[in-house]
Amino acid sequence: MAVADLKRLIAKVEDLPTLPRTVLRITEMVNDPRASARDLARIITDDQVLTARLLKLVNSSFYGFPQRVSTVTGAIVLIGFDAIRNLLLTTSVFDLFPSRTSRDRRHQESLWDHSLGCAIGAKAIGEVLRYEKLEELFVAGLLHDIGKIVAMTLLPEAFARITRRALQDRLLISTAEAEILGCTHADIGRLLAQRWNLPAKLMSLIEHHHDPAAAGAWAVEASIVHVADILTRALGLGSGGDETVPSLDRSAWELLKLKTGSLDAIMATMLDEFDDIGSFLR
Amino acid sequence: MLAEAVRNHQDQLLLEAGRQITAKSIRVFKSWGIRRVAVRSEPAVDGWGDDPVPTGMPPAVDEGLKERFADVVADPLMAAIMQAAARQLAARQPKKKSGYGRR
After folding, report:
1. E strand or H helix at B53, and its extent?
2. How far apart are the C-alpha atoms of A122 and B40, rounded to whole Å?
3. Which position has the higher pLDDT, B25 or B38?
4. Of A68, A227, A229, B101, which sits most exposed with the smallest number of CB within 10 A?
5. CB pairs below 8 Å between A and B: how many?
6. Could you write out the three-class secondary structure of chain A?
7. How far apart are CA B26 and CA A281, in angstroms?
8. Which of A184, A204, A183 is nearest to A193 (CA)?
9. Is the complex ipTM more than 0.90?
């Protein structure tokens, strides 16, 4: 992509929708040490859709609580402020990119399915590694390819050329993107994350999910998303726009100290949770 | 691949040691009532790729996975991932209406 085109893309990113006001207010509140669970619940319950989604999620297999959680305050106390913010962010992002045509819608749904698979995979790997903030991994997995959604929305013709080229010549989509756009979905995702003022860690995971070592202090989390991305492709959950499975980054695998013996359990979880969790996000 | 030669009850050689196990050879084994064979993987790196070749895998899944992994399957780690995916997809195959993938 020429410099002028890249600038045009950046300008278009500025036109992208911002996050819903409720999610922004919740993000502010999560960072406010004086805020209580009741304060947070009041904001969430003002939005019926968010309330319904939150309760559905808290009662899904994602958490697997033995008893039904019936109040927003109860959900907040159980899973914590950060988790609430991340989960509401997750459920809101799906609404922000309307498709123009039925073909776009199919592609977009397929991409979201891939993202959802990666999110579930990242969480499943986190469970095996006993990582503490599982919902953080889930959100990173869900948003790792957000740059593709942006490209599809803002540059539909170019994105169609990219996927065509990737499929015809068995290229990875990032290779085709670099050829046609001069940048990749990881770069575009970073631009959007900046636009949305997402946390620096999440921005880094989106930017470096193909080269996790470059995420520096967050290399472990980036490696988890990277491995989850590969496993999602292996299982054919949705489509990232190309049809080949790329090589796994050796340093990422070694950093996580995962064993191949864990792969079956991780993949079984991914398949089990894909339909369940997907039902309230789609 | 096979770790030991496979013979039927009449001691006829069905497949030599070191040969790749294919869908066809599995059908032959089954037709002779052979339920178990000794297998070994390609030379493993750090213990990668030491899982047995998945058997009883529906051809559609097998081909789809092979296609996806065609560029990387020489890597033992990627082969291990492919085998695990094959097992998990095959385990769910009877329950699903469609073949490979979950579009």
Report:
1. none
2. 31
3. B38
4. A68
5. 81
6. CCHHHHHHHHHHHHCCCCCCHHHHHHHHHHCCCCCCHHHHHHHHHCCHHHHHHHHHHHCCCCCCCCCCCCCHHHHHHHHCHHHHHHHHHHHHHCCCCCCCCHHHHHHHHHHHHHHHHHHHHHHHHHHHCCCCCHHHHHHHHHHCCHHHHHHHHHCHHHHHHHHHHHHHCCCCHHHHHHHHCCCCHHHHHHHHHHHCCCCHHHHHHHHCCCCHHHHHHHHHHHHHHHHHHHHHHHHCECCCCCCCCCCCCHHHHHHHCCCHHHHHHHHHHHHHHHHHHHHHHC
7. 42
8. A204
9. no
Whole-angstrom distance, CA of residue A159 vs CA of residue A181: 9
Mean pLDDT of B49-73: 67
Q: Distance between alpha carbon A150 and the CA centroid of its chain, in Å?
A: 13
Count of all residues that appear for chain B in the document: 103
Contacts of A50 (CB under 8 A, 6+ apart): A22, A44, A88, A91, A92
Percent above pLDDT 90 for chain A: 36
Residues on chain A touching B75 (C-beta within 8 angstroms):
247-248
Identify the closest residue of chain B to A242 by CA–CA distance: B68
Please check whether residue A111 is in contact with residue A145, taking contact to mean a CB–CB distance below 8 angstroms. yes
pTM over 0.90: no
Across the interface, which of B48, B69, B102 has its CB nearest the CB of A274?
B102
| The pLDDT of residue A56 | 83
Closest CA to A74 of A55, A99, A48, A47: A55
Q: Token digits for B19? A: 């040969």
CB nearest B103 (choices: A110, A170, A230):
A110
